[in-house]
Specification:
Strand content: under 5%
Structural class: mainly alpha
Organism: Streptomyces radiopugnans
InterPro entries: TPR-like_helical_dom_sf
Largest sheet: none
Protein name: Regulatory protein
Order of helices and strands: HHHHHHHHHHHHHHHHHHHHHH
Number of strands: 0
Helix content: 55-70%
Distance between the termini: 42 Å
Radius of gyration: 24 Å
């Protein structure tokens, strides 16, 4: 069956834009067709293009479906700059790569992220099928690192702003502390109607921060799938009207910072349910919003999040690169806890790659940085989770990946001793690391007991990652499948289904 749009009887116009880019990239017609087919396979598409197909495109025939976006991505990967279907002289279509753009201006960033929110609430099933693309990490991280700060984010002509209340240990761009959110409070916030061009207030931004804390707590306790769609709807119906409202420079920067945090969280919840392509797009847009906020440190945190996703998906090299870009982007200007976080995330990338010396060196840098932290440090609210318990967790994961099971068990046990009960999913992950380490040390009975406890918790969560930790352990059980503790474990897990 033809994959091209039916042509009219009129003569087509040759596509000179596509011809020029083919020449620039050094592709043959057959080479371009082959790369499009290969990229299609990454997205579960069985395409059958050949050199004749490319000849038709050059003569002006328009490919249909998602093919224009795939062709654009082939050139983006080859030439190292973001290209769209229109740049190739092709019609725009269902853009499977929409959302990976690092916008040139804050206004364009609002347009892109607003479109992403609307698509997510409108047809999230389609978006969840979009594949993660390692090549999509290159341009945004580069543009964040070397791009110029936004000179102006203000919109409209709001009245003069009230004097700002000094922040309480949250850094120059973070809001004052807000009381813990209540579900009823969040519901009241969500029902507020905003008119076009309405002035954004300090209360609006406090509400964004408060809602973020609520959704973060739900994510920790019940998994990303529990309230993800509610969060995205909130962004669409409340955050976007604020971004399109009226505000001065100071309020605008704080607004962009708050929305960046919520957008990163939306990506995190998508990541937790294995909607990896969608999560990647949210992270890229959160990075751009952080730049509009002028919050370089938070931008590094978004890159850390992207690096964690790359680790989870087995892209160790990209994970290391993202962590190093984050380190370069902030230098020594961030508090010790943030420095420790950046080095620990780099270590995780090295661990996936099996690079023992580099992993150990990064862990040592993280440990030294955290030792320099003091109670009075102005650590950003988003980095306060990175304490001794979290560092021990990072050590445990790294040693597990390096198959250093005795060290992995020691650090995982320490993390579980120190970690607060509110981090339910993180404790589950760490317990599974401990179970894996115990299995590696030959203690099958204790390993199965630990894993059974985690499997019970995973069954009560809407978190694909939690289930994957359990499945990974079960794959490791195969050599011991005839052991009594393994049979008992499998009976217990089967009863949970």
């Amino acid at each position: 069956m033809s994959t091209e749009r039916p042509g009219k009887s009129t003569q087509r116009t040759p596509n000179r834009q596509l011809a020029a880019l083919i020449a620039e990239a050094g592709f043959s017609n057959a080479g371009l067709a082959r790369r499009v087919d290969q990229l299609g396979l990454e997205h579960g598409l069985d395409l059958r293009y050949d050199k004749t197909s490319v000849t038709r495109w050059l003569r002006g025939q328009q490919p249909r479906g998602t093919t224009p976006a795939l062709i654009a991505e082939v050139f983006t990967r080859r030439l190292g700059r973001r290209l769209t279907a229109q740049d190739l002289g092709l019609d725009a279509c269902a853009p499977v790569y929409a959302g990976l753009e690092f916008a040139a201006t804050p206004g364009e960033a609002v347009d892109i992220v607003g479109g992403l929110w609307r698509k997510d609430t409108g047809n999230h099933a389609e978006l969840r099928k979009i594949a993660f693309t390692p090549a999509g990490l290159v341009v945004p991280s580069r543009d964040w690192l070397i791009g110029r700060p936004d000179e102006r984010v203000a919109r409209g002509e709001p009245a003069p702003e009230a004097p700002r209340v000094p922040s309480q240990g949250r850094g120059p761009l973070s809001p004052a502390a807000v009381p813990p959110p209540r579900v009823g409070q969040a519901a009241r916030i969500e029902r507020v109607e905003r008119g076009p061009g309405q002035r954004v207030t300090a209360g609006d931004i406090a509400a964004l921060r408060s809602v973020g804390e609520l959704f973060r707590a739900l994510d920790h306790a019940y998994g990303g799938g529990h309230a993800r769609q509610a969060l995205v709807r909130y962004l669409e119906h409340e955050a976007e009207p604020m971004l399109r409202g009226a505000y001065g420079e100071q309020t605008g920067r704080r607004l962009f910072a708050a929305v960046a945090d919520l957008t990163r969280l939306a990506g995190w919840t998508a990541y937790d349910i294995a909607a990896h392509g969608l999560a990647q797009r949210y992270f890229v847009q959160a990075l751009r919003l952080a730049q509009a906020a002028g919050d370089r440190a938070y931008g590094s945190y978004v890159l850390v999040t992207m690096s964690r996703q790359a680790v989870y998906l087995g892209h160790g090299r990209e994970a290391v690169q993202l962590a190093r870009v984050a380190q370069q982007g902030v230098g020594s200007s961030v508090p010790p806890a943030v420095q420790a976080l950046l080095h620990a995330v780099e270590a995780r990338g090295h661990g996936v790659l099996g690079e023992v010396r580099a992993c150990t060196a990064s862990l040592a840098r993280a440990e030294r940085a955290l030792e320099q932290a003091r109670p009075g440090d102005e650590t950003p609210h988003w980095a306060r989770f990175f304490d001794e318990a979290q560092l021990a967790d990072e050590f445990g994961h790294c040693h597990r990946d390096l198959q250093q099971y005795r060290a992995a068990a020691q650090h995982a046990e320490r993390s579980l001793q120190l970690r607060g009960p509110g981090y339910v999913r993180s404790r589950l992950f760490c317990r599974m690391v401990l179970a894996t380490a115990r299995l590696g040390l030959g203690d099958v009975e204790q390993a199965c007991a630990l894993a059974a406890e985690s499997a019970q918790q995973a069954a009560e969560m809407r978190s694909v990652r939690a289930h994957e930790y359990v499945k990974d352990f079960e794959r490791r059980l195969e050599p011991y499948r005839d052991a009594t503790p393994v049979r008992t474990y499998r009976e217990r897990v089967a009863a949970l289904v």
